[in-house]
Amino acid sequence: MQRVKNVDYDEDELYDDDDEYGEEAETYSQEDRGNFAALTPVVRAELEEVGLQASDKEIQDALWNYYWDVAKAVTYLKNNRTPKPQQQTLKKQERPKSKFDEAAERSAKGLGESGLSFRILSCLAWCGRCWSVQDEEVGHVVKIIVESPSDGSEGTPCMLPPRDWFRDVPWTLPPETQGHLVPAAPVYRPRLLGGSSKLAKPTEERGKKLATAGVEESSADGASSSLDHPTKPKEPKENEAPLTVGEPRNSQRSEKREPKPPPSSGLEEEKPDLRAQPTAFARTLSARPTPDTLPAAMSFLNLLASERSEDPFKGPSPDGTVTKAQNRSKGMTKRPLANKTQALKLDPTSTQATQPKVRSKGLDVPRLWAEERARRKPSAAFVVIGHVDHGKSTLMGRLLLDVGAVSQRDIDKYQKQASEMGKASFALAWVMDTSAEERERGVTFDFAQHHFSTPKADFTILDAPGHRDFVPNMIGGASMADMAVLVVDANQLDSGMKGQTREHILLAKAVGLKKVVVAINKLDAATPPWSQQLFESVQTDIKPLLATSGFADEDIKFIPCSGLAGTNVVNPPKPSSPAAWIPKSHFTLLQALERSIPTPAKLTTTAAAAHELLKQPLRMQIIDVFRGSITNPLSIAGRIASGTVQIGDLVMIQPSGEKAAVKALDVSDEPRDYAVVGQICTLHLSDIEAQHLRSGDVVCASQHPVRVAKSCTVLIEVLEALLPQPVDVHFGRLHVPGRISQLVETVDGKGEQLKRRPKVLKAGQRARVRVGFEEGVPLVVGERVVLRSAGVTAAYGRME
Amino acid sequence: MRLIKQNIERKTGEGSAVLLPEEPEDLWHAYNLIRPNDLLRASAIRKVISESGSGSRSNERVHTTLTIRVTKLDFDPQAAQLHVSGRVAEENKHVKLGSFHTLDLELQRNFTLEKAEGWDSVALDTLKEAVNQDAKVQLWAVIMKEGLANICLVTDHQTILRQKIESNLPRKRAGSTEHEKQMQKFFQTTFDSLLRQLDLANPKPLLLASPAYTATHFQSFIKAQAASGTNKGLRELLPKITVAQSASGHLHSLNEVLSSPAVTAKLSDTKFARETQLVDHFFTLIRKADNRAWYGPRESEKAVEQGAVGKGGGVLLISNGLFRSQEIEVRKRWVKLVDEVKEQGGEVRVLSSMHESGRRLESLGGVAVICTWPIEDLDDGEVEEEDEVHENGEVDEAWHENGDGHGIEGRVEHVEDIDFA
């Protein structure tokens, strides 16, 4: 648009310029020359910085076209010098012809057959510069156009006599001097030089699709197909002559309307050694037609017509080709993965789409893990269980405060807020109970997760809800834990024994926990405070319960403590206090925890065995689906049940069967490269929709997907009488309706059949039953199952 | 359903009945009444292709009344449509004898039913129940938990799951209100879908049930909507809302809810509440290992044979799914059982397989008895091994047929049964 200022140049001058065209392509005013002198060295210096050479002419050209904008000129020259000029040209021509595209093109070319206003606009733009490149020889053709009715130029209020409109238009037979002028045409959309556009992606995808279809495309094809692109949007009613002429003319015009790179024009003739390769488009256009193809206009048209009949986009786009080649060279690590995906998926076109964008580091996780083993602190996740209101959350809040994982300031803040609500004693529990509802009601709803470290170990707290209505959530939490902390209110033993103390113990056993620390809480509130007798009586009551549930004696530790007062949680009581008897025979809660860390039972004894476990295919149940952050809009959390996962892995989500790429992963809220069995981690996923993810789904290695089934056989320990009946089935976090469809048999301790097809299963029996589901459920053999009915745990067992 | 005309011979059971279905539930009754081989006469639209002398063909849609001998029934409770296929048994000028036709029974259109085997006692009972014009109780129930809501319509004879809303709620985490936001969104979705189902001009009782506080929260959500919105009907709905506790948010928890004191106080005299209580009673007995309760086809038959299901507390619970058997012999077997119990003076309860209680019964084989005295070892049937297996297969089938989809009954979906062992 800058050129519009030249509109008031008088015609004489214009003509003068035209005349000079033969000798020198462009003439510059004195002022311009000055500018050239000043700016050319600057540009050259810039270019040399990046190791590029450019002739004065080119630099001047660039400057002229960018209207003295040094930065733009340099960028253009740089781009021009990049090693793939041809591809870039092709790229432009391979764009999909969306409506938007076509419209943009048409306006850029100034084809607007009917728009008068447009004509004026282009006229203004045109007048400014048309004098610069003109050719007398085309005059005769111009006349034809001028007379053609569809060309509205006669009526336009333009300073130029109508015939000058087409002064520089190379007609069907470009003169030799002008042969290379025409190639300016491909730059009709200079903004696309960088190759970036919203449309680039669809093109690329289409390219890929076509590439997989196996259509080969030669560069010559691309070049010729490019021909019809700029001339395409024409109305059929238009006359033939303007049709052919339209393209070069318009390209010139658009040139004036916005800053754009100079045409890689005729100027370059003078320094052929420096000249860039003419584009394919240029080569085609400037090719001299053989005399017998005359009349040239007709033949050109024929050429266009013939080209048009072909599908210009049937080959892969150059972008696609390049991407493919790049993938092939650099993507060696994930290539096998991609191949496998291809084998699994029926639709080959979608394979590429699901290919992870994140590159895998290709770590040998088991080896790394083994190497790091020595340096690692032991770690464990423990679930805090017990009856409602026995002080689980408060005890954990205290623990976190005393180990320094939560600051006193936060607690003070909670204290203040809690007092305002009249629940001052709940302040510590608020560390775990973060939701407004929980705080208001003073009851934990869902299990909370918190990490802390001591010099000896890393811990993850899973604070389970005690209320009976939230037992499903408790099962979810317990299934992620390595051991349990049972909190018992010394003063409220009975309520718990009837209620969730008992049920939670059973459930802890049901999900396979072996070690339990029993924290006998609220001893400070006993009468008398810290009565050792009370502690011991509670101990004798709880012990048989644990024993009958199957906890071994050596796996149970009893700790007297007070969560609210903080006695014997992290710090042992003072010798002067009534609780002074404690340190003599008991650990603090924290010490007990540190001593109870299971020698990772699952990463057992020998390194080889551990290695084996790591090598199993990945299994992880999704505990939570959430929006991690702005950069990670879709994250899932869970505990890895087997195998390993690392960044860049392709995982499958069952039962949806959708695949996703692991973009990043966190363990204990810190970013890591990989995570292994037993760890509780957060995976940030890409290439998947949130609707395919639900808590309870299973993440698995895409090569070894978990089976999805509608029925299964379960070996159960019966706690409540069972008939074939509807039950709630819990697999960790997964909670689905199902029904016992058949009582297969009762068995004894060794698994020998006692009775076939019993009519009813009674409490205490061990039996094999068939369970059916309404929807497909991802099932892992050996997985622990809890069956509940009417709000009571009716049985637990293992999948067979 | 209205009985327009009947000429059923009491003794032989021969004769026909003209019935007028008036509401969707009547089609369910019709579904239970019409059996294969029966003669059904109803209006139909049939495309008739006629060929003229010159050989040109013309298509015509003709309204006509057809009589078919039933071969197959297809009932869709959600859309309340009953399609009856069969072969034309009475020729008319449009349709040839023996050609096939599927009648779509429509509301407010008479149909005539003639039983092939005569009207047996069960069929007559069903008919009686169908034409009973007593005020019918219906209620809406939303069984929910966080992230899951089942909206269903409970009528006298059916529980129809109208909509299931599932949404993914992120777990609570410190410093994030995402959980609350999603919860509100979930309530909004549930509320919107509920409104689409309810007829606010004539509000029926609404039962909200969930574990913990979800239902209470949802109730306050509806209250807030009623207070802020301009929807007057909504305000009238408020006093009709009952909140109850359920053990889970899954549909089968509806059972506990319907038998819970809070609900029975309001709905005690409804058929489904009675049925639910009966099944509960049966389950309690069997859990107690009281030998008075038995279930399964063979055991029930034995018990009845021994005369244990008679006066003084003998109850036969039987699912009406058994009477819908395609095989006449099977149906006869159950009708015989029912008649026997009635003779002995026992109580017979035909439970709707479309209710949760009926479903529970179906998982027990569709039939159960409560005896007047304990019987030992009714299940010593090891001798007839094969037969038993066959029966169990039958039970499995019934479970598949009815277990999925909650109410696409009659449309047997082939469930892939992957054996996991």
From TrEMBL, chain A:
Predominant cellular place of this UniProt entry's protein: cytoplasm
Localization (cell): Cytoplasm
GO annotation, biological process: cytoplasmic translational termination; regulation of translation
Feature: compositional bias, Polar residues: 348-357
Gene Ontology cellular component terms for the protein in this record: cytosol
Record field: catalytic activity: GTP + H2O = GDP + phosphate + H(+)
Region annotation (Disordered) ranges: 1-32, 79-106, 195-275, 308-360
Gene3D superfamilies for this protein: P-loop containing nucleotide triphosphate hydrolases, Translation factors
Residue stretches of biased makeup (Acidic residues): 9-26
PROSITE patterns cross-referenced by the UniProt entry: G_TR_2
Amino acid composition bias (Basic and acidic residues), ranges on this chain: 91-106, 229-240, 250-260
InterPro entries: HBS1-like_N (IPR015033), P-loop_NTPase (IPR027417), T_Tr_GTP-bd_dom (IPR000795), TRAFAC_GTPase_members (IPR050100), Transl_B-barrel_sf (IPR009000), Transl_elong_EF1A/Init_IF2_C (IPR009001)
One Gene Ontology molecular-function label: GTPase activity
UniProt entry keywords in alphabetical sequence: Cytoplasm, GTP-binding, Hydrolase, Nucleotide-binding, Protein biosynthesis, Translation regulation
Domain (Tr-type G) ranges: 377-601
SUPFAM superfamilies named among the record's database cross-references: EF-Tu/eEF-1alpha/eIF2-gamma C-terminal domain, P-loop containing nucleoside triphosphate hydrolases, Translation proteins
PANTHER family: TRANSLATION FACTOR (PTHR23115)
Family: Belongs to the TRAFAC class translation factor GTPase superfamily. Classic translation factor GTPase family. EF-Tu/EF-1A subfamily.
Name of the protein described by the UniProt record: Tr-type G domain-containing protein
TrEMBL record, chain B:
Cofactor(s) named in the record: a divalent metal cation
Protein location: Cytoplasm
InterPro entries attached to this UniProt entry: eFR1_2_sf, eRF1_2, eRF1_3, eRF1_Pelota-like_N, Pelota/DOM34_N, Pelota_N, Ribosomal_eL30-like_sf, TF_pelota
Keywords carried by this UniProt record: Cell cycle, Cell division, Cytoplasm, Meiosis, Metal-binding, Mitosis
Residue intervals of the eRF1/Pelota-like N-terminal domain: 1-132
Residues spanning the membrane: none
Pfam families linked to this entry: eRF1_2, eRF1_3, Pelota_N
GO cellular component terms given for this protein: cytoplasm; Dom34-Hbs1 complex
Entry GO MF terms: metal ion binding
Keyword Cytoplasm: yes
GO BP: any one term: meiotic cell cycle
The keyword Magnesium is assigned to this record: no
UniProt-listed SUPFAM superfamilies: Dom34/Pelota N-terminal domain-like, L30e-like, Translational machinery components
Function: Component of the Dom34-Hbs1 complex, a complex that recognizes stalled ribosomes and triggers the No-Go Decay (NGD) pathway. In the Dom34-Hbs1 complex, dom34 recognizes ribosomes stalled at the 3' end of an mRNA and engages stalled ribosomes by destabilizing mRNA in the mRNA channel. Following ribosome-binding, the Dom34-Hbs1 complex promotes the disassembly of stalled ribosomes, followed by degradation of damaged mRNAs as part of the NGD pathway.
Family the UniProt entry places it in: Belongs to the eukaryotic release factor 1 family. Pelota subfamily.
Protein name, entry field: Protein DOM34 homolog
Record gene name: DOM34_1
